[in-house]
Amino acid sequence: MYIRCLHDERIEHFVFLVTVSYQMPDYILIEFSTFVGLAQRPTFSTCENTIHVPTTYCSYQELRQNFDLCLLSDEAYLYTTY
């Protein structure tokens, strides 16, 4: 649902966060975790094109807010992993 709501520019940023490339990969894996607290945030393994998403969010809005923070973070574009 989150990805479907993204505009083209944000989709490019999303793909970059997952792959460190603006080209769409053959696949993107999604793995789920049960992290809470400060560890409760989406993380990305760029070598494996994998998104690690906590299942412990209280609401979709909370998940969306965390993903938006990742997409808007300048630091995410300075390093090869976030």
TrEMBL record:
Official protein name in the record: Uncharacterized protein
Species this protein is from: Psylliodes chrysocephalus
